[in-house]
Amino acid sequence: MARSVQPVTGAVSAKRFEINQLFTPSTPVTTAELFAGRSPQMVRIIDAIAEPGRHVLLYGERGVGKTSLAQIVPYLVPRRNAKLHYYRVQAFPIDNFHSIARKIFKRIKMHATNAADDVSEITAADLYKETITPDDFVHEFSFFNGNDVPMVVIDEFNEIPQDGLTTRLWANTIKALSDAGTNITLIIVGVANNVTQLIKEHESIQRCTEEILMPRMGRDELTEVLMKRLDQLNITITEGARWKVVNLAKGLPAYVHGLGKFAALNAVKMPTPRTRIEDSDVDAAIDGLLASSDQTFKDSYEAATRSNQPGNLLKHALTACALARTDDSGFFTPASVREPLSAILGKWVEIANFQNHLLAFIDPKRNAILERIGEQRAYRFRFKHPAMQPYVMMRGVRENIIDDDAKRSLSSSDYPDFAI
Q1: What are phi and psi of 151, to 5 degrees?
Q2: Residue 213 has pLDDT above 90, yes or no
Q3: C-alpha torsion angle, residues 25, 30, 34, 40 (rounded to 10)
Q4: Based on CB atoms within 10 Å of each CB, which residue in 207, 274, 310, 341 is the most buried?
Q5: Are the C-beta atoms of 208 and 174 separated by less than 8 Å?
Q6: Do the strands 109-113 and 119-123 form a parallel or antiparallel pair, or are they unpaired?
């Protein structure tokens, strides 16, 4: 008996390991083979790299795949006779121009010969003992020749202190690199609603930068993320289950990874492992993802919906916000909340009926689960952490705030409230 069970158990263990390797909700995608979608953004980045003196500002919400795109760019550039030099660094709140430039210079390696003709490997940072200036940066990259394709990615640029000086120095550097005709491409990546939030005085460098908004993923792109991995696993998925994963993700690839992973793990579990994911597996994935969610998500949800008043509608209103139609940056209007909330409550509601709920959700005393921009009568709202939106949707499914008809529609391509 033991001999007949062991091979099956071993195969399941191997498959589980492979599932966890391919579905990575916690980390960016690092290989081109597994990267999906984003063709328009990729084309614009490659065009900028090909054009001397042009640089890239890549911005958007947290969690939409900016870092993944920046990390697979080296795989997309045609090599031919060119030699690619790729340097990626991450910015932190303690950084300034000098510290970021030094990180980059530490990655530029070269050989040095001393008086005794001994050759040793050094980095560009070893040549700059004092503070590195924009002029030093331009000078160092002037040594790359025409066959070199140097790319420098500064990720998490939004983490830099907003004193204005550091971002202004980088704007000056971009302009100086362009004016000097160097063939380096600087790619600045950060969380921002617009370029002005990302880098000060960007108007001075508009002529030499490609400003690329990274929107949330469309359904075709999310489907590609899912299917690329399932195909490698030789696991199929029913149409309804596929749509449920895509519709619940709300344009955020990390949730396709999370739901896909838990659904696949549920399908292959003992004692009856399967090679097809069904609706019930995605339902189990919701439970798995909610259980594994960051405690801050759970705390934020509880703080936003806590009330001593029986029959309060805070959970219903927050779920409606999660279901609301959004723009490319995840913002929704009060009018877009009205339709899903009316569906949840089974009766038509006016904006005045839930306006106080929206105010409660931006209240710091409730952890301000939403943020608000714009002027009165033209306010727009967004979940402060984009990943909270799918989380709230899944809580709505699990706690039966979303009715059975709406749950069934999640498994359909005609899901009414999905709009990216």
Answers
A1: -130, 135
A2: yes
A3: 100
A4: 341
A5: yes
A6: antiparallel
Residue written as token pair 């490609």: 210
d(CA 133, CA 102): 10
CB 314, CB 396: distance < 8 Å: no
Q: Which residue has the tokens 């998490």?
A: 156
DSSP codes of every residue in 102-117: HHHHHT-EEEEE-TT-
Give the pTM: 0.86
Confidence grade of residue 310 (pLDDT, cut at 50, 70, 90): confident
- Measured CA to CA, the distance from residue 283 to residue 266 in angstroms comes to 10
- Which residue type does 381 have? F
pLDDT at res. 222: 94
- What is the average pLDDT across 265-294? 92
Query: CA torsion angle for 28, 31, 34, 40 (degrees, to 10)?
Result: 80
Mapping DSSP onto H, E and C, the string for 20-49 reads: HHHCCCCCCCCCHHHCCCCHHHHHHHHHHH
Query: Is residue 53 within 8 Å of 173, Cβ to Cβ?
Result: no
Backbone φ and ψ for 105, nearest 5 degrees, come out as: -65, -30
Domains with residue ranges and CATH for the chain: 2-26+218-292 (1.10.8), 38-214 (3.40.50.300), 295-409 (1.10.10)
What is the rounded distance in angstroms from the CA atom of residue 182 to the CA atom of residue 417? 48
- Helices 219-233, 253-268: inter-axial angle, 10-degree rounding: 30
Q: Binning pLDDT at 50, 70 and 90, where does residue 3 land?
A: very low
Instruction: Measure the CA–CA gap between 265 and 259, rounded to whole angstroms.
Output: 10
Query: Identity (one letter) of the amino acid at 169?
Result: L
94 phi/psi in degrees, rounded to 5: -85, -5
- Cβ pair 358, 318 in contact under 8 A: no
Could you identify the residue written with the tokens 């594994």? 292
Gap between the Cα atoms of 121 and 109, Å rounded: 7
The per-residue DSSP string of 251-288 comes to: T-HHHHHHHHHHHHHHHH-SSS--SEE-HHHHHHHHHH
Cα separation of the two ends of the chain: 53
Spacing of C-alpha 17 from chain mean position: 24
- What is residue 2's predicted lDDT score, i.e. its pLDDT? 45
Rg of the Cα atoms in the chain: 25
Q: Phi and psi dihedrals of 198, rounded to 5?
A: -80, -45
* Beta pairing partners, 88: 153
Q: What pLDDT does 4 receive? A: 43
Q: What is the percentage of the chain residues whose pLDDT exceeds 90?
A: 64
